Every structure is written in C-alpha cells, then in structure tokens.
Amino acid sequence: MQASVPTLSLSLRPLRCFVAVLFLLTLASCGGGGDAQLGQDNPLLQSHPVASDAGPLTAFAALSAPLAAAPRVPDATSFLNWAEVTYPNLFPSAQPNQSVDIWTYRYYPQTNIYLGTNTSGDVLGLVGDGQGGYTSYPLGKIASFSCSVYPQDCAVTPPPATVSYNECADPAAMTLPTGWNTSLTYNFEGVATGQQTVETRVEGPSTFEGQNAIRLRTVTRGSNSALGVSVATTTTDDTYLQIQPSGLHLGLGINAEVRVDGFSVDGFTMPASVTTSKTVFAPPLDDRMFTLRVGESATLRSTGTVTAYENSLPVNSFSMSESAVQTFVAREVVQVNGRNFDTCKYITHDTGNPDYVTTWHLVGKAIPVKVETPTPAGMQYMLLLSGTYNGAPI
C-alpha cells in the first residue's frame, strides 16, 4: 500500500493497513487468449458514431507530465494492465489480450467495453449500448500515457507559485489551523467487518528532524473481524507537515504507534503488542491530490527511510521507494448508510503492483465517506456511519 498521504482530509493509513495485514491484494494479469468476436464481425473493424467527448472514459482525457527524459512508450500489454488497475469501475476483471487486424485489445463483458491500441499507436474505447451498437471514443496516442504507465520515467512537476484547490477541499482547513479536528466513525463491510473511529486534530507548531513543522495527529480505534478472528487495535499517527508559499503541503515524516490487543486463533492466544516506527520522507512528500480537476492524475512519490523501534531502541531500518497515481475520476452522488453525499471520486493505485483504493470524498470537506478495496476474498468497504467536522455534525 502507499505511504500515508499527509492531507488534512484524513490519514487513511491505519485503516488501509488493517486491510493490508489481513489480505494480500492481487489482481491476475493474463496474456494470450482467443478473439471474442472473429473477422469482420468484430466491433473494432466496424464503423461507429464518434462521441463528442470522452464520456464514461473521461478519466483518460488529460494524462500528461513534464518529462525528465524521453519516457518509454507503453506496449499494448503494459498499457492495458495499467488501465485495468487504474479504472476497475470500467475494466472490472483481468482479461487476456486479443487481436484482430491491426488492433490489440481487451473486452470487458461486465461493462460491454472494448479498449485497444493499434499498430499506429492509436488508443480507442468502444462502449456498447446493450443493443449490439457501440459508440467510439478515440483516446489519443498510447505515447500520451507514458508518464501514467511509467511514472518513474517522468519528472515531478515543479510546484506552482500559488495553489488552487478544487471543490473537494476546504480551503480554510488546508491552512492547518491549530485545533481543527474531525471525529469519524466507519463501518467495515465485506470480507472484514467491524467498526473504527478516526479522530484527527491539528496539534500546532512542532519540529521534525530539526525542521519546523505542523503536527497532525490521527488516532484510530476499533475492532474488526475476519476469517473468524476478531482484533482490536489503536493506531496513532503523528504526521509532520509544512505549508509552502504556494499553499501546498509537504510531508516531512510520520511517527506511528500500533497497539494490538491480545486475541485468539484456533485456540491459541496471541499476546498484546505495541510497535512504533518513524518514517522520514526524503525529499518531502509532495501531495497535490486536491488540486486536480476531473480527469486529471498526479503521481505521489514516497522515498526515504522507515525505522522500527522496540522499547525506544531502533531494531530495523530500511529504505522506502514507492509511487502511487491519484486520479480525480468524477463528481458523484453516492449513498452511504441511507444518506446521499455529494462526493469527489478518486482512484489511487500503486505503480509497482496492482493494489488500488477507490475513495469518495465529501465535497467541500474532503473527508472520505466511502472507501472500496478489492481483495482476493471479495470486496472490502469502509462506510461513514457518523461524525463531526470541526465540532459540527456531518
């Protein structure tokens, strides 16, 4: 899973880590396979009305980044694998490559969508109407997706002189005023069940590794059950942030403590445990999640060191180098526990593996009201039950 994202919205790391401990997220990536529709009957070889915009494939519309050097042009398999991981709502199952004439493509029967690229580098999506007809969505050239498929080949965009947050965020909260706080209770549904309460507060000016910072504390308490095992945990994250002249946040690092109560497995009692760690980002973590517009993506790169402690003494230290692509997919009204919320839908996926998380953030407050994570055992949901935003009920 990706490193903690130090935005004021909410540190989801403790909740994601709970799921990660229980389930190793995997998505099968298949190759080969036969053509679903052969010859001239294949929709890729037929004429279709051309959509005036990207429609359901709009998230593909604006994928670009300044280049440190000429990046690799994705091959068809790498591009299609990336698309499946990044947009599971459009491409909900791993499919094999198929080919017809100049096209290499995959077909997704659940959504009736074809996605393919041809020998000229064109990318095309076909969206079915359920009556045998398809609308064509030209999606540009495969080379335009280089920085999304291979973000390590591309430079980090220089920070802007001033930042313009999108409608998902609360501009006042993004200034990190001391005392700002949320208390959010979530139900877990799916493979794991239970409840977690996440309390977040801006503690105020502090220091981290000799640098001035603002400390954001997130405490997550609750109990979850999965595979017949119930575990109670308390996780405390102290995230240290700086605010740049542009208004953007930089994450310097995280001090974390995880307390796990004793529990029983198959008649054996596991003792309670406490683990602590320090993450130091080098360079600082540059998070631009809430500056994106619909259809835009940004790569969050996490590099630095993680040190684990036991009885205040370091017992293990290792280097960390990860990257995750954050995409603002759409504005969407979502129903959670019988209530409708106006949200910004984001998909975040690790670039080095197929892990991804879909999060619906409440417009104007940026707090997650729904988090969806696929696991080999089934879908895992985290659903907002109740909460307060700076003391006011949500």
Structure summary:
The chain is mainly β. Helix content is 6%, strand content 51%.
Describe the overall structure:
The chain is mainly β. It folds into 2 domains: 39-153, no CATH class; 161-393, no CATH class. 6% of the residues lie in helices and 51% in strands. It has 3 helices and 20 strands. The protein has helices at 13-22, 76-86, 146-149; strands at residues 98-100, 103-108, 113-118, 122-128, 134-141, 181-190, 193-208, 211-226, 229-243, 249-260, 263-265, 268-270, 273-287, 297-310, 313-336, 339-350, 356-362, 368-375, 378-389, 392-393. The strands form 3 sheets. The protein has a 12-stranded antiparallel barrel with strand order 6-7-8-9-10-13-14-15-16-17-18-19. A hairpin with a 2-residue loop joins strand 8 and strand 9 (229-243). The protein is globular. The model is unreliable at 1-38 and 61-68 (pLDDT under 50).
Give keywords:
394 residues, mainly beta, globular, 5-stranded antiparallel sheet, disordered N terminus
Number of strands: 20
- Measured between the Cα atoms of the first and last residue, the distance is 29 Å
Helix content: under 10%
Secondary-structure element order, N to C? HHEEEEEHEEEEEEEEEEEEEEE
Overall number of structural domains:
2
- What is the SS-derived class? mainly beta
Arithmetic mean pLDDT: 81
Strand order, largest beta sheet: 6-7-8-9-10-13-14-15-16-17-18-19
Low-confidence stretches: 1-38, 61-68
Largest sheet data: 12 strands, antiparallel, barrel
Portion in strands: over 45%
How many helices?
3
Q: What does the radius of gyration come to?
A: 22 Å
**What is the general shape?**
globular
Identify the quaternary structure here.
single chain
